[in-house]
Amino acid sequence: MNFVSECLGVNDAGRLTVGGADAALIAREFGTPVYIMDEDQIRKNCRAYTGAMARHYPGKWAVAYASKAFACKQMYRIVNEEGLMTDVASGGELFTALKGGMPPEGIFFHGNNKTEEELRYAIKTGIRRIVANGTEELERVSRVAGETGRTASVSLRLSPGVTVDTHAALQTGKLDSKFGVPVETGAALEAVKLALSFDNIKLEGIHCHLGSPVYQTEPYTEAVDVMTAFMARVRDELGYPCRELNLGGGYAVRYLPGQTVVPVAAYAAVIAGAVKDAAARHGLPLPELVIEPGRGIAADAGITVYTVGSVKAIPGVRTYLSVDGGMTDNPRYMLYGAKYDIILPERALESKTETVALAGRCCESELLGIDMKAPPAAAGDLLAVLNTGAYNYAMASNYNRIPRPPVVMVRGGKPFVAVRRETWEDVCSLDC
Ligand SMILES: Cc1ncc(COP(=O)(O)O)c(C=O)c1O
Prior knowledge:
The protein is an alpha/beta fold. The chain is built from twelve helices and 21 strands. Helix 2 (39-56) runs parallel beside helix 9 (264-282) and helix 5 packs across helix 6 (135-147). Bound molecules: pyridoxal-5'-phosphate (PLP).
């Protein structure tokens, strides 16, 4: 069977397994919809990145898990145990990371408009880096750090002007973006000058994130060229030795059978090689190289299992399979037209003879996907959407006051609850 993830398999009874555990049994025990995540696959993915960086980059390096992809206390525990740092994009993610035991010195804090409350929290906690998105944020960080009597360790997010081939909403390294200070307009040089003028900021490096998913390696080499040329420029013009280069994430994963993706080792080899060559070309010491994979760590470790509630076949038009979840647990089709593979966990080997639209249960014309290949299904069947480990639970909402599904993790083939199912009571719990 050609699965989109290594952690998926089929047992002797023809049923789907995740990390060796029977997905349908988990769904029957914990109810649907349910996210199932294989902890062993998460760990394998972490090691793929750390192993590749260790093999290919001779300088100092760090892999910081981009936890916006999937955040809960257990996830931070896992990535910390695997020697990764993490990136957080809000006070809530920072709070969860610390609760999950992530040491502050392993945390990068991103975002294009952090609040003062969040900055105060980050500075008091003593996290590794605040990644400042622009000049106002540099000023804010300096002021808040001054008020708390500390020096904030900062990296400056740049927009390198590299456009990647993905959905427009996911292109974040181009000039026309809310993220980062543009290099090509000269604003980045001015921002570095400003950062160096503040007493309460220690500027440690520069950052960029091109977007995601990026299915080619060329945009990363382009970004390395722009970023290292900028490092040489700030050395020459400002006498500033920039020692950390953070190239963000975006490393693609396979969502559909047959889709080809760049192996993790190849991304690392290309990026490490480009940084080494550029450093030599510009006479720069090797910078500390940071990468921030998110989906590359979480996506293929997870599936979502639903129960089919109805099958509406409109002759000559389309067949809608409605399931008991929807855009509330996976908004990515509605946001980006994201594509997924589906399977019936209790009949995993059955041929996909039908083409269906997978409909959610929200009071919208909302789908989880269109023109999806599926075996014939009926009300009561379990249905799994594969590779939903990233940006699904993390993006879940309570639209229509639908409670969020639980996250059941599998370790060594045994399931355990990492995040419990929300209840109607939970959904109402903040109402005054
Ligand atoms: C700053 C930053 N780093 C890393 C990532 C991770 O991207 P991906 O999950 O595609 O690896 C993102 C995603 O939005 C990001 O904004």
